[in-house]
Amino acid sequence: MAKKTLLILAFTSLFIGLAAADWNILDQKWRKARRNSLKNYCESWRINVELNNIREFEVVPQECVDYIKKYMISSQYKADSERAIEEVTLYLSSCCPFESDGKDAWIFDVDDTLISTIPYFKKHGFGGEKVNSTSLEAWMKERKAPALDHTLKLFHEIKDRGVKIFLISSRRETLRSPTVDNLINVGCHGWTSLILRSLDDEYMHVQQYKSQVRKRLVDQGYRIWGIIGDQWSSLKGQPDAKRTFKLPNSIYYLS
After folding, report:
1. b/e per residue, 66-97, with b = 16+ CB within 10 A?
2. Any signal peptide, and if so, which residues (predicted)?
3. Could you tell me the pTM of the whole model?
C-alpha cells in the first residue's frame, strides 16, 4: 500500500511539474505576443501621426511613451531626419531657377527643426504629459537647445545659394532674445528674419498664424521655394510653397 501511495505521489509531482513548465512556456509566449502587439500598435500610432491621420492629440498614449522615447533618441530618428534632408538636397539640385533680385525665399521652423527640444522632454515625460508652456518657456530661456546638425548644414547650403531664409516660429515674441542667442550659439546665423508670435496673433492656431506670415512674404514679392518643419501646421495652408518637407516628431502636436 505504501509503495502504491509513493508511486501515485511521484506521478502527481511529475504531472504538476510538467504542467507548471508548460504554463511558464505559455506565459512567456503570451507576454512576448503582448509586447509585440503593443509595439505594433505604438509604431502604427507614430506613423499615423507623421501621416497627419492622428491630429490634435494632447499627450502620447501612456502605453506608447517608452516606444516614442526610444524612437526619438534612436539612430532611426536620426536616419529618418537625414533622409528627409537628402530629399531637400535632391529637390534643390534641379528645382529652382533662382534669380538675383533678392526675392528667392525658403522657410524654416525653429524648434525640432533647427534646434532640438528633446533634452527638455527627456525630463518631462516624452509626450506622456500635457505640455506645460510655462515650464517649456523657462527651459527655452536657458538657451541650451542643441542644434539638429543635418538641418543646420542644409540651412547654410541654402543660404550660400543667395536664398533669403525666414525663420517662422510658434515661440512668443517675449522669447526673441534667448531664441536669437540659442540659434547663434549653435552656429545658425545669417537668416533674413526671425518671425515670432506677437500679442495680436498669440491666440491664433499655429497654422493660421504661419499662413498669414507667408501671405505677407508673398505680398512683398518673395517666391517661397520650400518649407521645412516638424509640424504639419508649419506646412499646411495658403499660400503654400513649391515644396514642403516634414521632419519626424511624435512627441507633441501644434494645430
Report:
1. ebbbebbeeeebeeebeebbeebeeebeeebe
2. 1-21
3. 0.86
